[in-house]
Hints:
10 strands; alpha/beta; 3-stranded antiparallel β-sheet
Amino acid sequence: PGATYRVWSAACSSGEEPWSIAMTLAELLPDSPWEIMASDLSTRVLERARTAHYALERAEHIPRPLLVKYCLRGVGSQEGSFRIVPELRQRVQFQQVNLINKLPEVGTFDLIFLRNVLIYFDLETKAQVVRRLCAALRPGGYFFCGHSESLHGMDLPLSAIQPAIYVRK
Length: 169
């Protein structure tokens, strides 16, 4: 109780994932401290993610109540776009991280998302990347990968809960 709930979006690309997670946490943990670290290899997509500014078409999968509560509609020269509200923007930190290298000191997380990235790595690299991330996942924490990705056959400190969802032993 009182501890900050920490989530890592480990390959956040242009930021839709961490912003969606932020909306979810704001709804589920309204009176609890939480924070999100979002990382990617590309500084270009990180700059885009950091702005939290998107074309309105990108909002079609955001449930209307969340859209109204957490997104600001652009007006004037910003017509046709939206931006994530400042209250959420201050709770998401973006950082460039190369998952293939030794990870920076980032602390431990309750939840790590690494979706649709492992498909780009060979088996040995996949295992090394996931092992590094597991070292930053608290015991009992959850690890999410993409539905088309498998951790099968890798010696990892994870137990499968259902496809693409694992818990740290």
